[in-house]
Amino acid sequence: MLIKLLRLFPPETAHAITIKLLKSNFNLNRKQPKIYKSLNQTIKGINFKNPVGLAAGFDKNAEVINQMFAYGFGFIEVGTVTPKKQLGNEKPRVFRLLEDDAIINHLGFNNKGSEEILLNLKSFYARKNINEIIGINVGKNKSTQNDIDDYLYGIEKLGFYGDYITINISSPNTPGLRDLQLRGKIERLVKKIQKKQSEIEQLEHKPIFIKISPDLDDEQLRDIALMSLANNVNGLIISNSTIQRPDTLISNFKNEVGGLSGKPIFLNSTILLKKMYSLTNGQITLIGVGGVSSGHECYEKIKAGASLVQLYTALVYKGPKIIDQILKELDELITIDGYKNISEAIGKST
Ligand SMILES: Cc1cc2nc3c(=O)[nH]c(=O)nc-3n(C[C@H](O)[C@H](O)[C@H](O)COP(=O)(O)O)c2cc1C
Predict the structure, then answer these.
(1) Which of 26, 56, 63, 235 makes the best surface tag, with the fewest CB within 10 Å?
(2) Measured from the CA of 102, which atom of ligand 1 is nearest?
(3) Domain ranges across the chain
(4) Is 171 among the residues known to form the active site?
């Protein structure tokens, strides 16, 4: 009902209303999400009560972490946070492709900046429950002179408050950002991040994941796999939104500029995930993102090699109640396949 009502507003207004409602704890008088023992696993030393997380971009400013946990998410990734506050690109910059269950956005890292977001994280942290796992996704300012310094700044400033940190080098809406994925550049970035980590005791053992684009070709994918193995990268998040436009799209908004997310990217992002799992021999933790809106799709990602899964666009079309349904379906699916725990299914379709 509320989801349909929100659709009467332009997408960004609907999002702003949603955040306001959540902040006022609207609709939070709901039953505790069910806990499934079969979905609990420890990854990189972190205990995840379930593998379904909120992808970056929904709670860019770390304002509604508690409220989103109440819907049953196993983990929540906030951001992307840039060192300085940014307004992002000119509006309109978010488009609903209703007929395609998809979104195109060219927001351009609009966020309140690390200073203000740090305060939000601190207030969450003060009441943080041990099984509320949060990731902090960091990026660079559009006008920065030194890309790498922006990432190092984000890690140093906010890293303590996350259970893990994500390095976002794959958003299509910040000029030059995705070039950081290229051979040489990505390795330089990783080495500098690891050096920074080794200098700060509290960050030394904090998992750092790198979020990559679904638009990488096979050679770039292989480069990243080899680089990840050679440098002991903790994990890869696969994937961000795509600049490609599949032929199947029918919405009038299909040619808007920006990153496409939702149902139409499920297939490609899952193929990429599967390729990366095989290129890294299952030795690197993978997080699958892109077009997940059911337990079945979540399970597909896991069987393709993901230890964890995230979603965003499905919330826009189906609302947060899908989390309960996804968890229930996942539990059923692993039981049908004869597994006791979700971790046994990782990579099983390769
Ligand atoms: C409106 C919108 C804003 C987003 N902002 C970010 C962001 O700030 N940082 C990021 O890493 N990904 C961002 N994403 C990408 C998502 O985290 C996710 O990788 C992508 O949407 C694919 O998942 P989905 O199909 O479940 O939405 C954004 C996606 C959408 C739809």
Answers:
(1) 26
(2) 25
(3) 37-345
(4) yes
Q: Which residues line ligand 1 at a C-beta cut-off of 6 Å?
A: 55-57, 60, 79-80, 94, 103, 105, 107, 137, 168, 171, 211, 240-241, 261-262, 265, 289-292, 311-314
Q: What superfamily in CATH does domain 37-345 come from?
A: Aldolase class I (3.20.20.70)
Q: How confident is the model at residue 89 (pLDDT cuts 50, 70, 90)?
A: very high
User: Which of 241, 294, 308 has the most ligand 1 atoms within 8 A of CB, as the residue to mutate?
Assistant: 241
Q: With 90 as the cut, is the pLDDT of residue 315 above it?
A: yes
Q: Which atom of ligand 1 is nearest to the CA of 311?
A: 26
**pTM value > 0.90:** yes
Q: Which long-range contacts (CB under 8 A, 24 or more apart) does 340-344 make?
A: 340/38, 341/38, 341/39, 341/40, 341/41, 342/38, 342/39, 342/40, 342/41, 342/50, 342/51, 342/302, 343/41, 343/307
pLDDT confidence tier of residue 250, bands split at 50, 70 and 90 = very high
Catalytic residue among 38, 114, 170, 171: 171
